Amino acid sequence: xxxxxxxxxxxxxxxxxxxxxxxxxxxxxxxxxxxxxxxxxxxxxxxxxxxxxxxxxxxxxxxxxxxxxxxxxxxxxxxxxxxxxxxxxxxxxxxxxxxxxxxxxxxxxxxxxxxxxxxxxxxxxxxxxxxxxxxxxxxxxxxxxxxxxxxxxxxxxxxxxxxxxxxxxxxxxxxxxxxxxxxxxxxxxxxxxxxxxxxxxxxxxxxxxxxxxxxxxxxxxxxxxxxxxxxxxxxxxxxxxxxxxxxxxxxxxxxxxxxxxxxxxxxxxxxxxxxxxxxxxxxxxxxxxxxxxxxxxxxxxxxxxxxxxxxxxxxxxxxxxxxxxxxxxxxxxxxxxxxxxxxxxxxxxxxxxxxxxxxxxxxxxxxxxxxxxxxxxxxxxxxxxxxxxxxxxxxxxxxxxxxxxxxxxxxxxxxxxxxxxxxxxxxxxxxxxxxxxxxxxxxxxxxxxxxxxxxxxxxxxxxxxxxxxxxxxxxxxxxxxxxxxxxxxxxxxxxxxxxxxxxxxxxx
Length: 508
Fold this sequence. Notes:
It contains 26 helices and 2 strands. By secondary structure, the chain is mostly helical. Among the domains are: 3-91, no CATH class; 381-508, no CATH class. The radius of gyration is 30 Å and the shape is flat.
């Protein structure tokens, strides 16, 4: 096994859960002999924090003469043993593996002439395949029913059941075709979003009869229908439709709980998108309830576990920063850092959380720590950030340095921020007003002059946005301005503004 494959072996071992490792040790070492070299190699890899092939080699051979070819073969053998063990492990919990095994049993029994046993296995497989809408398998089961009847010269069965079989075959073919069409529509919309396309690029999908007229009796197809409708609403920036379709999607998914156990990743995504829609509609109570569901999901894979944590924490931080619960978010931060450290993999992308880290500390009044996290964000390659976040990071940087009283540094930062925004054609009305304001307030000599600067800036913000809630991306700019004008805590202003917003909505 080459070094490249050695890396793969290391990553494979490190990706195993505690239960999977335990199962491997039980199956791979039935005699209880821990001296088997491939088990020694497995334990050595498991103990490493960083891949070191030379160290592994010495731990395996422990003073013996090392033969590179034999060592390479040993790693290749261990890789294969782990994969076979994982297949066996998955068979115990995977419905689809159970169905596949039942169908393999039919083939084995048929070759040996055990027709009645074949029928028994087919009956079990059909029950599961119907429950989980495995239309391809259901079609194959019908093929076996006909073939077994033909082999047994069971004329009575053929006469009685051929009509039923033909009708079921037609139904399953139609269901499979419909499922395929909806899946293709969903993936096309998904790709358009990821590629930054506009609504005009998906108009043909919006007008498609499959999207316009919902006539579905398959659960899996219905799920794809609502997922597609929700994505289209998101592209159209229709917050009401996005929220409604995301909510309806969850109703459909949760109406068949057994699917949730096998389609974990899809359920996580549906809950997360619903939380996003709740955030856009300021339905924070709904967001909180939906997000708690994410936390209770039982992962099937390491990817599920990471996704559950990432989406839960992201939604929780959104909830806390929008409702002013910065201290609660800070408490969650400690558990978050411990959790991502426990993953022991490089697959968790913490970069997307740098703004949250900084904003949470800012909301708690810890400007030094906030600046530390923001600098981590600013030091990222610009290619990995979208333009809005690039703009936000620089504006937020100026606010932090203002809070820290770094007057001299602010002079150069204002100039560099202006150049950056102008170069990227991001210098819009609100950014221009902010740069003019921060330059003026920095030069103000007295508290009274600074207060006047903040008052003037607030009027400009309201005139630009037409609302008392003004944000630069995710940062509540108006709440910060109000906190300075009222000499109040930023987090309390966010909370109070939310209460006023809810009361106003209720009156309307």
